[in-house]
From TrEMBL:
NAD(+) binds at A3, V4, H5, F6, G7, A8, G9, N10, I11, G12, R13, G14. Its EC number is 1.1.1.17. GO terms for molecular function: mannitol-1-phosphate 5-dehydrogenase activity. The keyword Cell inner membrane does not apply. It comes from the Bacteria. The gene is mtlD. The keyword Flavoprotein does not apply. Residues 2-196 form the Mannitol dehydrogenase N-terminal domain. Residues 203-381 form the Mannitol dehydrogenase C-terminal domain. This is Mannitol-1-phosphate 5-dehydrogenase. Keywords: NAD, Oxidoreductase. It catalyses: D-mannitol 1-phosphate + NAD(+) = beta-D-fructose 6-phosphate + NADH + H(+). The lineage of its organism: Bacteria, Bacillati, Bacillota, Bacilli, Bacillales.
Length: 383
């Protein structure tokens, strides 16, 4: 069985590619990083190391790669032949792989009527749905009608902390032992892909919101408050009692919202949240706050890990989510010069004013109580 995975990066090699190999797939990675592509084609395998006391190594074999920026035709051909397509390129990159996927599906339907599922494994709500939208923009009406029933774009939630790597072996990936991969089975076309580790669910929304608003909310709190406090890594941020208090507070606020919204059993959710926060203390992982805090415009977005739960919490309880407000303020203060989105946020605040910038990035109205609370917190924190 052939899997085509877009994005041979941290999670692509460390999580998705690992599970695909364990499940008997040959995996062709599609990437634009020529160094990764060349090394994968030269070695046909790579090593995944578990970031725990065991340091257990897993050799992932039966892999190769295509550089879609220099060999687009080959990438299209791989999609046409695939039994499964997955992607982990970053939410903002999904529109840029849609063309290759569209051309691959067209080539496929010219040769066979075999169904295919395309699963985006991104940290966002509705990743595959967005990818489908972008693919369908490249189709004519007849193709849209045919592809609607022939191909599935099931949304997914993926969870495994895979930090930026600094190994001598450029293909080696150190990953935490924990992982979860939930896929919306109601959107699968044909046979469900038999991939070890996938949990198929009928309603993905509770899963993706629980994951994004617990793991990624807590992670973002550690990153932005860690950066604000001059702390370089997540595990070190967790050693700072003031930062840890805000992380736990933010996860408690999202937890209260999720429990009320989805009817999660309180004790079970609190145990899940505690396990998640404990993952951030893993001494075998050195995860820079600048990776976890990357793309602050995305993370300040109305449907992402900070603003969506903050708005839902406020609407639900009428109270201000004090910890989430601190994290949002810290994200607005995040001025890492190597991150273009961080530079954009700082320039927008400087040129348009804080209230307008908050409304622009978060869609929280400038005159609202929530916006005023963020402004007040920002002013308190600004050095
Ligand atoms: N790293 C994690 O801990 C983790 C965990 C869960 C989910 N995710 C999500 O997975 C996605 C990828 O994250 P990551 O940490 O692996 O990032 P990454 O930067 O390590 O990997 C992204 C890969 O995509 C490649 N790429 C960029 N543009 C491309 C294009 N046009 N076509 C093909 N490949 C392209 C890059 O070269 C890179 O190899 C993101 O949505 C992230 O939120 C990450
Ligand atoms: O990948 P991002 O930029 O959406 O978020 C950074 C981290 O929080 C994220 O990569 C986590 O490590 C991951 O979501 C854990 O499952």
């Amino acid at each position: 069985m052939l899997a085509v995975h877009f994005g041979a990066g941290n999670i692509g090699r460390g999580f998705i590619g690992n599970l695909l190999y364990q499940s008997g797939y040959e995996t062709v990675f599609v990437d634009v990083n020529e160094e990764l592509v060349s090394l994968l084609n030269e070695r046909k395998q790579y090593t995944v190391v578990l970031a725990d006391e065991s340091q257990q190594e897993q050799i992932i074999k039966n892999v190769s790669a295509v550089n879609s920026s220099t060999d687009a035709e080959k990438a299209v051909e791989m999609v046409a032949k695939a039994d499964l397509v997955t992607a982990a390129v970053g939410p903002n990159i999904l529109p840029f792989i849609a063309g290759t996927i569209a051309e691959g599906l067209k080539k496929r339907t010219a040769a066979s009527d075999a169904p295919l599922n395309i699963i985006a494994c991104e940290n966002m709500i509705g990743g595959s749905t967005l990818l489908k939208e972008k693919v369908f923009e490249k189709l004519n009406e007849e193709e849209k009608q045919q592809f609607e029933t022939r191909f599935g774009f099931p949304d997914a939630a993926v969870d495994r902390i895979v930090p930026n790597q600094s190994n001598e072996d450029k293909l080696m990936v150190k990953v935490e032992p924990f992982y979860e991969w939930a896929v919306d089975q109601t959107k699968i076309v044909g046979t469900k892909p038999d991939v070890e580790g996938i949990t198929y669910v009928d309603d993905l929304k509770p899963y993706i919101e629980r994951k994004l608003f617990t793991v990624n909310t807590g992670h973002a709190a550690a990153a932005y408050l860690g950066y604000y406090g001059g702390v370089p890594t997540i595990d070190q941020a967790m050693k700072n009692p003031e930062i840890k208090e805000v992380i736990e507070g933010a996860v408690k606020e999202t937890g209260n919202m999720l429990i009320s919204k989805y009817g999660f059993e309180r004790e079970a959710h609190e145990a899940y949240a505690a396990k998640i926060v404990n993952r951030f203390t893993n001494p075998y992982i050195s995860d820079e706050v600048t990776r976890v805090g990357r793309s602050p415009i995305r993370k300040l977005g109305p449907n992402d890990r900070l603003v969506s739960p903050a708005k839902q919490y406020h609407e639900l309880t009428g109270d201000m989510p004090a910890s989430l407000i601190k994290v949002i303020a810290a994200a607005l203060l995040y001025d890492y010069k190597e991150d273009p989105e961080a530079v954009n946020v700082q320039e927008t605040i400087a040129s348009n004013g804080l209230e307008q910038a908050i409304e622009q990035f978060t869609e929280i109205p400038a005159a609202s109580e929530l916006s005023k609370a963020i402004v007040s917190q920002y002013e308190n924190m600004k050095k």
